[in-house]
Design a protein that fits this description.
Elements (H helix, E strand, L loop, with lengths): L2 H29 L5 H28 L1 H7 L3 H25 L10 H12 L5 H4 L5 H33 L3 H18 L1
Length: 191
Amino acid sequence: MSIVSFIIDSFFLGVGLAMDAFSVSLANGLKEPHMKGGKRLKIAGVFAGFQFLMPMLGWVCVHTIVEMFSSVQNYIPWVALVLLLFIGGKMIIEGIKTWSDTESPDAEIGHGMLIVQGIATSIDALSVGFTIASYSLVSALICGAIIGVVTFLICMIGLFLGRKLGMKLAGKASVLGGIILVAIGIKIVIG
């Protein structure tokens, strides 16, 4: 494989893997339309970090504990579904509550929620470790880094778009964001 095709393949792998993180970033931007720049960088960084780590973890599994991991692989979409249903359901409930409040401050995305989102959106990237199992450690790290950078950029776009839409949608943004997360969870399970 040439260097150019390796970079192109890694880039498109990153784009494909980043779509769930993009959608959650969009939902986060909708939920918190007045989000500061530092927090946007943190959110995109967490998603990019998990998108880098999960394929590497899958690569390590292939090279060490394949039998154990293959028995767990069937449950990965269900774990993602449960996490996204929890986060999305919470956002929908919070959004409905704010419709009845006359003055409601923007609900902020906490550190714990951000970690759960990072895991939920990157859990499918774990199986990418199987597709890059033939790579050397250095090549796998470079591929993971490209996936992480692509995810970071795509999440920043999602957060920007979500903030813009969130400011226009006001209190209904949290409900819309929650619906997006629930839909992502269902999509992961259905395939």
